[in-house]
Amino acid sequence: MENYQGISFSMKNTFSSTQQADIVAFDQCSAFALPDASVMLKSHRSGMRLLVPADMYGLLQNCAHYQTIAKHVKDLISLDPSIEAHKDQISQVLEDLKNQGLMDSGQRLISQLKSAAITGAQTTSFAGTFIRTCDRPEQLKRLLESLSNNQQRHQHQCSYIVVDDSKNPGAQQKNQAICSDYQHNASISVQYYGIQQQAELITRSSQAFPNHSATIHWLLSHDDKLDNSTFTGGRILNHIVLLAAGQHFTLFDDDAVCQPIASPQMQHRWSFSSNPKDCRFYQDRNQMLTEIQSIELDPLTQHLDVLGKPLATVIKELSAVELSLNALRGVSSASGQIFNPQTPILITRNGTFGDPGTTSMAWVYQQPDHTQQQLTEDHEKYKQYLTNRTAWLGSQTFRAVNENALMTTTLTGIDGSQLMPPTGPCYRNEDYLFSRLLKFIHPSSLMFEFPWGLPHLPEPSRQWNPETLDEAKTVGILGFMADIANNTQRFCLADSPQQRLSYIGETYRALADAKLNVLADGIDENILNARTAIINDMQSLLSKQSDQPTYWINDLQRIINANQNALAQPKQDLFPDVGAGDTREQQVKSCQQTLKMFGNALTLWPELWEYCKHNSFLR
Fold first, then answer.
1. Where are the beta strands (DSSP E) in 229-344?
2. Mean pLDDT rounded to a whole number for the chain
3. In this structure, are residues 594 and 424 in contact, taking their beta carbons and an 8 Å threshold?
C-alpha cells in the first residue's frame, strides 16, 4: 500500500475473515474539514465522532444506501476503477466504520422493529369516508353503488359524506338527489355537503375569527372571479380536513370504484424503499378489465386497521408478511432514521388500475427494467400504451415509505387526529402540496401502501397526447410552493407541528414581500431546476439502456430536446395555471398574492383546525 496515492487506509483493522451478510449504509454526518486534508465526522444517528481522510469521506458519501459491503465496494469501483486493486482494504475500512458507529446496520434496524414492545394504541374516532365530486353525477352514482355493494359484502357500517365542488347548478341538483335517494333507501348512510353547508362552515368560522375573515374566504370559498374550468379541488380538501379535524378519515375521488384488485405480482413481504411504483401497462381498458383479478377484502377496513398506528405495531399485526433485510435494500440512511418502532403512519394509500391520474408522460420512462421491457416489446403496443392511459400503478409489497408525493386518485386514508395542513384552494397539484406540507410539519412520519389497487375510470376515458413529449417541463404555482417547502424543511428546527406550520407560513409571506424581480428569479430558477433534472434523468436512461428500440430512444430524445431548447429560449409566461395568458410581470404579481394569502392561512390554520375540532358541521 506504500505506493498507493488514493484513499489513505490507516484505520485499525478489525475486519473478520467471515463477512456477515448484513447490509449497511453510511450515516448522515456533520463534517468538519481540518487543514491536514482530514475531516471530523459526527454521526447524526449514533453521535460517534471519527477523524477520516478527506478523500475517504468523498467516497463514503456514495455509500449512503443500505447494501452489502461487497455491493458498496463494487459500486465504488465503478465510480473509480483505479481503486479496484484495493477492494479488500476498502471492505476492511467499511467494516471498521460499521463497528465504530459510522455505518448503520440493517440487521440492527430490522431486529429493533421486530422486537419492539407494543404500547396500547389510543382510540381515535372515524369521521367517515369523504367523496370529492365535481360535475360528474353519473360517476358519483357509480362510486356510491360500489360502496353500497362493498358494505353489504363486508358488513362494515360507514358514513359517506359527498363534498360537492360542482360549478354546474344542474350537476349540484343531481348530486344532491343521488345522495337523498341513498339516504331514503337506507342502503348506506350518505350525507350531502354542498354550497349551503360549505357556506355555513365559512360563516361560523369567520364569526369565530373576525379579523381573519378574508383569509377564511380565500381558503374555503368559491372564487367567482375564476373561470369555471379552474380546478378547485384544494378548496374542497380544505373543507374535508376541517370537517374531520381530530379524527381519522378516508377520501375518494368520484371517478374511482370500490372494487379491490390484486396487484399483478402481489408479494406478502415488507418494503421500505422509495423506488418508483410498480407499473404494468394495458393496451386499453377492455384488456385491463379482462385480465385483472378481484380480491375479497374491505378496502376501508384495511386502511383503518393501519392508519395512525406506530410502525412496529403494524409489523406485529401483519405478522404473516415477511420482514427481512431486503425490505431496507436501497433505502438511504437518512430515511433509515425514520424507520423506528414508534414512527406513526399518517397516510395510507393503495394502487390504481386504469387512468394513472397524470397528464405528464416522462414518468413512463423512469420505470424499472421489467416495465421498460414490457413497454418496448412491440412497437404497436408501445403506441397504444402511450395513448390509452391505462395501467396498474402501485406497490407489489406492503410498503412503508418516507416520502411526500401523494396523489388522491382512488382511496386515501388520513390520520386527522394529528394537525393536518391546508392546501392551495385553486389549481392542480393540491394533493402534492398537501402531502409536502404534511411531511414538513410531521417530518417523523410514514406513508403506508397496500399491494392492491382500486379502479380509476374517468368517463369519458382520457388519452395521453404524444405531442406533450415535445413540451418542456412546467411547474404550477402549487408545485412551486411545494418545492419551497421541500427546500426549506432542513432549516426548520422547531418540534411542534404548529410551530413548523408557522415557520413555512412566514417563509411564504417573506417571499411575497420580496421585490418582484427577486421573486421572478426564484420562480425562473425553480423551473430551470425542474427542466435540468428531467434532462439529466432522461440522459442517464439513454446511457444505461442504449440497446432499447429506436422509437423508445427517439421519444426520450424528444423530451431532452424540448427541455434543452427551453433552457436557452425561455417562454414569456412562468406558470401554466395562475395568471395563465398574463404577462410575466402580472404572473409574478399573482404568485406574490397567492404566497401572501397562503402564508396568512398557514398562520391562522392551527387555531381554525382546533375550532372545527370542537364544533360539528355535519349532521
1. 248-253, 261-262, 270-271, 278-281
2. 93
3. yes
User: How are the residues of the chain apportioned to helix, strand and coil, as percentages rounded to the nearest 5?
Assistant: 50, 15, 35
* Chain center to CA of 240: 19
Per-residue pLDDT of 277-321, as tens digits, reads 899 999 999 999 999 999 999 999 999 999 999 999 999 999 999
**Following CA atoms 248, 124, 450, 462 in sequence, which dihedral angle do they give, to the nearest 10 degrees?**
-10
Residues in the chain: 619
Which residues touch 487 (CB under 8 Å, ≥6 apart)? none
pLDDT at residue 8 tops 80: no
Give the domain ranges of the chain.
Answer: 24-104, 126-253, 261-465
Number of other residues whose CB lies within 10 A of the CB of residue 293 = 10
pLDDT at 59 > cutoff 50:
yes
Sign of CA dihedral 26, 32, 38, 40: negative
Contacts by 492-500, CB closer than 8 A, 24 or more apart: 492/440, 497/418, 497/419, 497/441, 497/442, 497/606, 498/419, 498/606, 500/440, 500/441, 500/443
Strand ranges across the sheet with 38-43: 29-34, 38-43, 49-53
Closest to 251 (Cα-Cα) out of 119, 114, 416 = 416
Which DSSP category does 322 fall into?
Answer: B
Q: Which residues of 567-582 are buried (b: 16+ CB within 10 A; e: fewer)?
A: eeeeeeebbebbbeeb
Query: Is the predicted pLDDT of residue 6 greater than 80, yes or no?
Result: no
Cα distances from 423 to residues 107, 125, 175, 493, in angstroms, run 39, 24, 25, 22
In 389-544 the beta strands, taken as DSSP E runs, fall at 391-394, 398-401, 411-415, 446-456
According to DSSP, residue 295 is labeled -
**Residue in the block written with cell 438511504:** 332
Question: Quick check: 412 pLDDT over 80?
Answer: yes
Pairing mode of beta strands 446-456, 345-354? parallel
Cβ within 8 Å of residue 335, ≥6 positions away: 272, 274, 402
Residue 250, classed as helix, strand or coil, is strand
- Assess if CATH 3.90.930 describes domain 24-104: yes
User: 119-165: per-residue pLDDT in tens?
Assistant: 766 789 999 999 999 999 999 999 999 999 999 999 988 999 999 99
Residue spans of alpha helices (H) in 186-226: 195-208, 213-220
The three-state DSSP-derived secondary structure of 5-68 is CCCCCCCCCCCCCCCCCCCEEECCEEEEEECCCEEEEEECCCCCEEEEEHHHHHHHHHHCECEC
Q: Is 618 helix (H, G, I), strand (E, B) or coil?
A: coil
Angle at 365 between CA 360 and CA 368, to 5 degrees: 130
Taking phi first (over 0 means left), then psi (-120 to 50 degrees means alpha), and beta for anything else, what does residue 400 get? beta
pLDDT at 414: 97
Q: Which amino acid is at 262?
A: A
**Distance from C-alpha of 273 to C-alpha of 219, rounded to nearest angstrom:** 35
Spatial distance between the Cα atoms of 135 and 153, rounded to a whole number of angstroms: 29
Q: How far apart are CA 45 and CA 302, in angstroms?
A: 33
Helices (H), 80-162: 87-99, 106-115, 137-154
- The Cα 307–Cα 432 span in angstroms is 19
Average pLDDT over every residue of 173-179: 97
Distance CA(43)–CA(98), nearest Å, equals 12
